[in-house]
Amino acid sequence: MALTLVGCHDAARDSEQAGHGGPRELVNVNDRIVEYAKQAADRAPYTPPSRVQRERLALGVGQLLDREDAEAEETFASVGFHVTRLTDAATNRRYDEVAARKPGAEAGWGRLYVSADSAVRWSVQVPHPVADRGTESLGARLLEKTTGGALVVAGAHRTSGRGDAADVAHRTDSAFHAIITELQKRGVPGLQLHGFAKGPDRPYDAILSTGAAQAAPEEAAALASHMKTRGLRVCRGWADRCPLEGTTNVQGKSAEGHHATFIHAELAPAARAEDGKKAAQARAALTDLLDVWSDTPAGR
After folding, report:
1. Which residue in 299, 267, 251 sits closest to 120, CA to CA?
2. Beta-carbon neighbour count of residue 164 at 10 Å?
3. Spatial CA neighbour of 260 closest among 155, 143, 145, 181
4. Residue 267, C-beta contacts closer than 8 angstroms, at least 6 positions apart
């Protein structure tokens, strides 16, 4: 279950001041995201949304990005979701959280966090919370560090469903994929976080690739260079023979179809840890990437 931290703001007053009619909370956004992601460890039974439910979620995301708040709330409500305006207690930045209204199948579909203070310029994607340990915390930190972002977090452990039903990086019938596809249609570039265990055939700190795309965008090459400069050992999927290149990743394939930038980042345990030298180096390089995207209008 997600940890809800209710602040002392007067909801009616905040709504009038900000023009947002939904519920409002003062929270530690990082903690809220991580606590939600942790529930994936329970491996609760997973049932994917239907086609109609995925379409409604995608419609609601589009309305939210267009600042059609009332319409978005109505659309999300039709599939058991709602929007909560969050203010981060540490940074005072505001985010819109799209989440299930109550426990149940919908709670396992995932969550979306969108900057409410600026247009969305980039997304960070966490498809395997808990399974790829530390990616949920890294995603939350990146959202807080850079303006203009959206964070998409899967709600189930990748082994929760029948077969690979909950492995959202390889399924198109998920809320995760529906949300990211809507972002890609609008030209929003995405960074998808994964984790791997180091071994003789994986001596790297990071493996970067572009999914289905054959050529690397300038940002991907720059990210690899920034990581190398900071002392990380990097395998570049577009130039080297790397394991775990993400060529079967369905969000990567969708990005290619929508001409949206997609970077698939596999990180070793030390590079996605809560602290430590390599973790700090990886976060700094990834933040550099998001800073560039934050300054670039989506779709350009």
Report:
1. 299
2. 12
3. 181
4. 134, 135, 138, 193, 194, 195, 196, 205, 206, 282
Spatial CB neighbours of 281, under 8 Å, sequence gap ≥ 6: 227, 230, 231, 232, 271
Distance CA 268, CA 133 (A): 10
In 3D, which of 296, 266, 285 has the Cα closest to residue 142? Answer: 285
Can you give the pTM of this predicted structure? 0.91
Tokens of 65: 């990005």
Q: Cα–Cα distance between 83 and 93 in angstroms, integer?
A: 16
Quick: pLDDT tens for 3-27. Answer: 333 333 333 334 434 456 678 999 9
DSSP run (H or E) holding 228 = helix 218-229
Q: What amino acid occupies position 110?
A: G
Report the alpha-carbon distance of residue 40 to residue 196 in Å, rounded: 18
Q: Give the H/E segment covering residue 221.
A: helix 218-229
